[in-house]
Amino acid sequence: VSNFNIIDTTLREGEQFANAFFNTEQKLKIAKALDDFGVEYIELTSPVASEKSREDNEKICQLGLKCKVLSHIRCHMHDASVGVETSVDGLSVVIGTSSYLRKFSHGKDMDAIYKAAGEVVTFIKSKGKEVRFSSEDSFRSDLVDLLRLYRHVDKLGVNRVGVADTVGCANPRQVYELIRTLRGVVNCDIECHFHNDTGCAIANAYCALEAGATHINTTILGIGERNGIVPLGGFAARMYVADKTYVTNKYNLHMIRDIENMVADFVEIQIPFNNYITGYCAFTHKAGIHAKAILNNPTTYEILRPEDFGMTRYVSIGHRLTGWNAVKSRCEQLDLHLTDDEIKEVTRKIKELADIKPLGIEEVDSLLRVYNKKLEQTSH
Ligand code: HCA
Ligand code: CU
């Protein structure tokens, strides 16, 4: 899979995260950081949501970013008429199409949706803005209804149609099939939005691209409704493995850590220990067997080069699973000259102590230094 675009929606979907209350300054910082990172689009909250939202959207548009700026609106003529008067490059239109949403949310039947979609898309196009039309809860919608609707807006000249797994129910194979089918029905680009309730979001995004999708929605750290959507960092990791050159040339991967720290700070959360790329142990190697191979050739156990993401690898040695090769490498770093037999002996000592409790790196280092000194003294 190569050639895809990121539509980051931290400033729309991310605002729906339980802890998110971005002020204007924070929104501007997020928009700039995403632009510097290199996303192709950012999506903002609807200008209809609140007066402040509308004002902040204007301020973001005035930043003169390289990326395109979109705002998210309901499939209403009222929202569209407000949206076209704002400075965004395009509007992302959405309407629920599953029986759940038709019944418990907006109450429209498929014919009414069909009509509203046509009207709104035609209107936005006539005002010269980019327009995307998306169906909420696509995976619990009737396939025949859905394809008919997408074909309709495609004929009317929509820039993209959107598929949204609003409830996070879809699995990669279902995604592949739906997008493959849709690819045969419309000519326009295909955008996808995956929630992560069952941990399939990144895999779903990848399969969507394999099946012909062109644009993927992400947020920083995956924040969004409930447990959120495709995280920008994890998605970047997935795509880096698929096509390293394309991804490293297109995105400023070294920025991921700072962007995540900034947003974690704004929404008052910690970066999860097992986070893609930036989790505290993402590049920590522990077992003796791993440590030895990593020291010989990092790619043995690393699919992501930490340097490509501005990160560093760490080999943990103060534990009962340690091995003498890792200890030897530490001695070299500390410029201590021990023979292999001496290193093996001190490794036994480390394992013995670590069987009682793990040792910090300072404890290991001082053990190595003391041992080295003793040897030096006895040799004189
Ligand atoms: C929601 C809307 C949405 C929209 C996705 C889209 C979803 O908050 O329910 O516009 O493609 O998940 O369906 O985020
Ligand atoms: Cu969503």
UniProtKB/TrEMBL annotation:
Gene3D superfamilies reported for this sequence: 1.10.238.260, Aldolase class I
Name of the protein described by the UniProt record: homocitrate synthase
Keywords: Amino-acid biosynthesis, Lysine biosynthesis, Magnesium, Manganese, Metal-binding, Transferase
Entry GO MF terms: homocitrate synthase activity; metal ion binding
Taxonomic lineage from the root: Eukaryota, Fungi, Fungi incertae sedis, Chytridiomycota, Chytridiomycota incertae sedis
CDD domains recorded: DRE_TIM_HCS
Gene Ontology process terms (BP): lysine biosynthetic process via aminoadipic acid
Cofactor(s) named in the record: Mn(2+); Mg(2+)
Origin: domain of life: Eukaryota
